[in-house]
From TrEMBL:
Residues of the DNA-binding region: 43-62
Stored SUPFAM superfamilies: Homeodomain-like, Tetracyclin repressor-like, C-terminal domain
Protein name: TetR/AcrR family transcriptional regulator
Start and end residues of each HTH tetR-type domain: 20-80
Pfam family, one: TetR_N
Cross-referenced InterPro entries: Homeodomain-like_sf (IPR009057), HTH-type_TetR-like_transc_reg (IPR050109), HTH_TetR (IPR001647), Tet_transcr_reg_TetR-rel_C_sf (IPR036271)
Keywords, ordered alphabetically: DNA-binding
Species: Streptomyces pactum
Length: 202
């Protein structure tokens, strides 16, 4: 089975050493704020203070809180991407596309559950930013690639967006908080949703 190379979240042109150090200091400071006070405490001023640098530097590097939080998510996203791009099956290559798609969406449930507080603040700060974020673009390209193999009669790009649309923190808050669903129940619902759109194996 041929493999399609996808960009890895967080990959960027090489940075100057001082720029790379500033980026790392800002992301480390952001991670500390999230761990100690929650994602809602993240502001550009708070991050600048925690990183020991001017707020202008933080704005120049990341632009706004949403981009900063998505950059923090991108850093942790890399291990997830390596798993679905080159890890063992069924999530990685060498498994049937239907099995890979199911495994990917199950893994994505776990990721949203683990990271949903940061995702929630990032989404609220800039609702449309998700669709231009490197991590989302990579996930979308991966899902679309699998769908082209499974459903060549469809617009795989549009269908990939629709399959990824439920994986937003506000919906997970409703389903888990208000409805009381567990991650395993969410995965069962994902399987039911997949059965409506793509061929299943097993």
């Amino acid at each position: 089975m041929s493999r399609i190379e996808l960009p890895v979240a967080g990959q960027a042109p090489p940075e100057r050493a001082d720029a790379a150090r500033n980026r790392r200091k800002i992301l480390d400071a952001t991670a500390r704020l999230v761990a100690e006070e929650g994602a809602g405490a993240v502001t550009m001023n708070a991050v600048a203070h925690a990183a020991g640098m001017g707020v202008g530097t933080v704005y120049r590097r990341f632009g706004d809180v949403s981009r900063l939080l998505y950059a923090l998510l991108d850093h942790s996203e890399q291990a997830f991407q390596q798993a679905f791009m080159s890890g063992p099956p069924p999530l990685g290559p060498d498994a049937p596309p239907a099995d890979r798609l199911r495994a990917f969406l199950h893994a994505l449930v776990d990721r949203v559950v683990e990271q949903h507080r940061i995702m929630q603040v990032a989404e609220a700060a800039s609702p449309g930013a998700r669709y231009h974020n490197g991590a989302y673009l990579t996930m979308h390209a991966h899902v679309a690639m699998l769908l082209r193999r499974l459903r060549p009669d469809t617009d795989a790009g549009a269908l990939a967006h629709l399959l990824l649309a439920p994986f937003v923190p506000s919906l997970f808050d409703h389903l888990m908080g208000d409805r009381g669903l567990t991650p395993e129940q969410l995965k069962s619902s994902v399987d039911a949703l997949l059965s409506l759109h793509v061929p299943v194996t097993g």
